């Protein structure tokens, strides 16, 4: 039997799906992305002020440097996009 191993980003304060997962597993709700799209405490001091997309790349690089990064797999998902002010994904 194959046992899944790995990590997944879970942001219960920023995603309805992640919120349901957090409730099911008793995870705390922490808001780590500011209104301007940058990381804020308690998201890790080394990422504070870094834009969320850049922060994602930095986390992958940090895992790779430590020999902990094993790759990325794409998964289908519904991602609402802003169509009025910007072409960015909408974070609830």
UniProtKB/TrEMBL annotation:
Q: Which domain of life is it from?
A: Eukaryota
Annotated Gene Ontology cellular component terms? cytosol
**Biological process terms in GO annotation:** valyl-tRNA aminoacylation
Q: Write out the GO MF terms.
A: aminoacyl-tRNA deacylase activity; ATP binding; valine-tRNA ligase activity
> What's the Enzyme Commission number for this chain?
6.1.1.9
| Chain coiled-coil ranges | none
- KW Mitochondrion (keyword) present: no
InterPro entries tied to this protein: Val/Leu/Ile-tRNA-synth_edit (IPR009008), Valyl-tRNA_ligase (IPR002303)
Alphabetical keyword list: Aminoacyl-tRNA synthetase, ATP-binding, Ligase, Nucleotide-binding, Protein biosynthesis
Spell out the Gene3D superfamilies in the cross-references.
Answer: Valyl/Leucyl/Isoleucyl-tRNA synthetase, editing domain
- The name of this protein is valine--tRNA ligase
Question: Which gene does this sequence derive from?
Answer: Vars2_1
